[in-house]
Amino acid sequence: MFSGDNSSSTKEEKLTERTSSECEAQCHVGYKSVFITNCQNVPKANGCGSMKMQKMFNMSIIDNLVSSETLNCCNEQDLCYSTCGVDRDYCEKQFEECLGGPTEVFALLSEWFGCYAFEKSQKKRCMCVDEAYPKSTIDDVPCPANLPETT
What we know:
globular, 151 residues, 6 helices
């Protein structure tokens, strides 16, 4: 569960969640994910690689070397990661299809390292509310902590 989750997880549990093949950022049963509108947290596309990866590997150079089609796929994935309630597997499948298959290096990197970016995007922009809540957005709640941009 993400924004609004008051559960206490140990550092080891959080690390396991981020690196598992089952990347979770979903609400518990009986709840749904809605977009927080009052936090100036508009989803952003920033090319290929998470902000963390871009800093580590100077990904802006890679963005200049990849085709415009690949860059577009990366940007679409960024926006998918920021869609409240979306399943990460759906985003990965769309990304692979856009790139032309799972053997594309970016698809493999995303599969291996994208969980952290996915979870942070969901936590920054989304909140779990009761299923009966009638809207897909919410604006009368405190904004999540200022999390660094990750998509």
